[in-house]
Amino acid sequence: MMELPANPANEVDSREALVAHIIDLRADFLHRDDEWENPTLEQYLEALAPWIRSSPNWYRNFGQEMPVDGDWTFFARALSAAEIYE
Hints:
Oligomer: single chain
Shape: globular
Radius of gyration: 14 Å
Distance between the termini: 43 Å
Low-confidence stretches: none
Strand content: under 5%
Largest sheet: none
């Protein structure tokens, strides 16, 4: 079993923490976009769907259970709303 990689996402435990994480992701992209493997919105979204699909395996690889109480509808609404929200 692999050790869970260090990542600020591991600390997100509230709506406010999620907002801060998204702001930090944007700042990281603005400073290091040349280091991102998926530096366009198209590539980012293209990678997001397969990662979510295989996420149970990701959790299993690190000896963790996939959260069963995640709010998938909230995440989907947030992704869709960002298309038009200013």
